[in-house]
Amino acid sequence: xxxxxxxxxxxxxxxxxxxxxxxxxxxxxxxxxxxxxxxxxxxxxxxxxxxxxxxxxxxxxxxxxxxxxxxxxxxxxxxxxxxxxxxxxxxxxxxxxxxxxxxxxxxxxxxxxxxxxxxxxxxxxxxxxxxxxxxxxxxxxxxxxxxxxxxxxxxxxxxxxxxxxxxxxxxxxxxxxxxxxxxxxxxxxxxxxxxxxxxxxxxxxxxxxxxxxxxxxxxxxxxxxxxxxxxxxxxxxxxxxxxxxxxxxxxxxxxxxxxxxxxxxxxxxxxxxxxxxxxxxxxxxxxxxxxxxxxxxxxxxxxxxxxxxxxxxxxxxxxxxxxxxxxxxxxxxxxxxxxxxxxxxxxxxxxxxxxxxxxxxxxxxxxxxxxxxxxxxxxxxxxxxxxxxxxxxxxxxxxxxxxxxxxxxxxxxxxxxxxxxxxxxxxxxxxxxxxxxxxxxxxxxxxxxxxxxxxxx
Length: 457
Prior knowledge:
Layout: H1 5-18, H2 22-33, H3 41-56, E1 60-81, E2 86-88, E3 91-92, E4 99-109, H4 113-118, H5 120-123, E5 127-131, H6 143-152, E6 157-161, E7 189-192, H7 194-201, E8 207-228, E9 233-243, H8 253-277, E10 283-290, H9 298-307, E11 313-319, E12 330-333, H10 339-349, E13 354-357, H11 368-372, E14 377-380, H12 407-425, H13 439-449
Parallel strand pairs: 4-5, 5-6, 6-7, 9-10, 9-11, 11-14, 12-13
Antiparallel strand pairs: 1-2, 1-8, 3-7, 4-8, 8-10, 12-14
Helix pairs in contact: 1-8, 1-12, 2-8, 8-12, 10-12
C-alpha cells in the first residue's frame, strides 16, 4: 500500500509551522552562545546543544565527530597614515599572516590588467589599495586571482575596500576555494571600510603602516551527525547539512544559524512523523552540522571523507547556508543527471518549486567537498541570487544578529525540505539515474573553470 501524501503533508507542515522551535533555537545560538569560530569554546557549546536536540527529538545515533583543524586567530590590527598620524580601520582577511610594515600607497583601482600596466613602476614594495568589486563593464576577475597577481608583482600588502556603507567591514577570504587546501593569502591582506578606503585613495604615494597580530595553530573541533535509518534501504542515504560555525566576532544569525536551525527542525519534524504516525524514511536520511565552513570548508570535507563511500550509497546532499537571504524557490544542482527526478518530486508537492543546474561548480559553501567526490550536492534557489532580502547584506560581520533570521520563511523551508526529503527517500534505488560523475571528471572540470567568476543568475 502506498503512502498517503495528503496526510503526511498536513502533519509535516503543521509540525513545522505551529510546533516550531526556530525562535528559541535562534536565541540560544545567537545570543546565549554567540560567535562560534571553529575550535572555540562557543563553537563546542553550539555543537553540544545541537547533539542534545538530536537526542531529545529521537534521532538515531547522534554523535560528535572530532577532527583536528589547522586554524588561525588574530588580535590587534592597526592601520596608520604615517605623515598625518591618522588611524584607518582595518580587518584582516581570514588566515592573514602577521605583519608589521610601512610602505607607500598605490591605488590599483579594481586590479585589472590595464591598471596594473599603468602602475607597474609603482607596485613593487608598495601597499596596494583595491576595490573588492568588479570593474564596471569589464570581464569579471575573481578577487583571489587579483590578489595573487598583485603578489606576483611584488606588493608588500593589499588593502581591499569593502563596498558596504556605514563604515562596515566584513571578513573575507584570499584564496580560490576550488582548491581549499591551498587557499592562503599570498601576502598580508586586510579590508577597510568604504569611507576609510576613500581616504586611502586620496593618499596615494603617502606612507601607510599596517600591523597585524595573528597566529596559526592546530586545535580540535567537531561535526555533529545523526540519522533517521531507512526502513527499506538503510545503506542508501540522503544528507541534509549546514555549518554551525561563524566568522570571528559575529553571532551569525543568517550565516549560519538559519541553516543550522533548518537542519535541526527538519530532523525534528521527520522524527515526529516516525514516532507519531509510524512513517519512516525509505532510505536513510542523515542530518549533519559542520564545523569550519568559514575555514576552507574543512568540516564538510572531513564529513564527506568519512560518510560518503561505496558502503553508504549517497544519492544527494542538500546544503543549507544563509537561508534568510530569501524565500524558498527550489533546488539548484551541480550536475544534471538528477534534474528530471528532483523536478518530478517538486511538481508532486504542488507549490511551483523549480530545479535548476548551475553552469559552474560553486566552491563557496559546504556542498563543494561532496562535489569534489562526484556526489551531487545541491543548495537552495535563493542564496546569492536576485531578489535577496536586504537583511542578507549583513554578512561576516557583527551586525549579522538574531534579528536577521526570517522566522516565517524558515518555517516554510523546514516544511518543504521535510516533504522533499521524505519523497526522495521512498524512491527505489534502481529508479535513481546513474551518476556519471567521478572525482577525476570533477577535477578536470575545476581546472577548466579556474579564473572564472561563479555565475549566480
